[in-house]
Amino acid sequence: MTVRLIPYLVMDGNASEAIQFYREALDAEVLYSQTFGEGPEDPQYPVPEEAKNRIMHATVKVGETELMFSDTFPGQPHQKGNQVTICISTKDPEKSQKFFNSLQQDGQVTMPLQETFFSPAYGSIIDKFGVNFQIYTEGEH
Start and end of every PhnB-like domain (predicted)? Predict the structure, then answer.
C-alpha cells in the first residue's frame, strides 16, 4: 500500500495565475485542472457566476513531486500564509478512516470523511497543532 503526502496550496481566486507561475518558474507540468464551473451541477448548491472560473482542483508535477491547488469558494475566509494544507492520499479506505480518526482527536473536522463525486472517502481536518490535512482516498466510488 502506498501513502503519499502532497502539499496542497489553497489560493483566493488566483490559483490559475499561481499554476502558470510555478509552471514557468519550476518547469512544472500541469497534470489536471478543473474549475468549479466544470464540476457536476448540484441544484442544492448552485455555483455562483463569480466562482465558475475559480480552480476547484489542479495537480502539477515538479520533478518527481506533485503539488495540488484550489481556490477558495467565494466568501470562504482566506489569509495569506495559511493556505498550505497537506493532502494524505491512499487507495485504502480503511487507512483513510484511521488517519482521519487519529488526526481529529483534539482537532477540528472541517469536512467529515464522506463519499464525494471525486473520492470514495474524502474529508478535511485541522489537527490540534493547527495543521490543515485533507484525507483523499483514490479509486472508484
Answer: 5-135
